[in-house]
Amino acid sequence: MGDRIGIINKGVLLQADEPLTIYNKPRTMFVGGFTGSPSMNFIKIKSRIEKGSRSIKVNGAQIKVPEIYENSNTDTNFMGIRPENISISEPEKGNIKGKVFAVEYLSTHNIVTVDTDIGRVRIRTSAKLKTKIKDNVGLNFYHDNIIIFNGDNEIAIKSQFMN
Question: What is the mean pLDDT of residues 128-145?
Fold first, then answer.
């Protein structure tokens, strides 16, 4: 077994690196969606991303992000975040509010699916967190690991995290 892998789509090598780097820092939305179970969450951002930004507005909520090093090319972009980089809280304490749609109990952890105004979001939680279907919850994002993808080409925008 090798210590590097490559992700190819339609005959084009999108990324070749160590597996953990590909998982944590996918260079394209395809790679982020292809790796992991569950895969990366993609949340639509309906605004241009400006160089120097340290936060973005998502459905009225201000979300911290690693410093952005370049402008986006479009007014529609995507925030990518892994399920383990989201936490569940009381609704009033969350950046985004939603209702639990499903809970998968997987012994050491759970996968909680939450319906929100920004779409369906999947969160990996501790098995100790007791949530049930139809619970109202708040979602908070660990901002150090957020990746912004340019809506034109689905390539990660350079940032403090994706440099």
Answer: 95
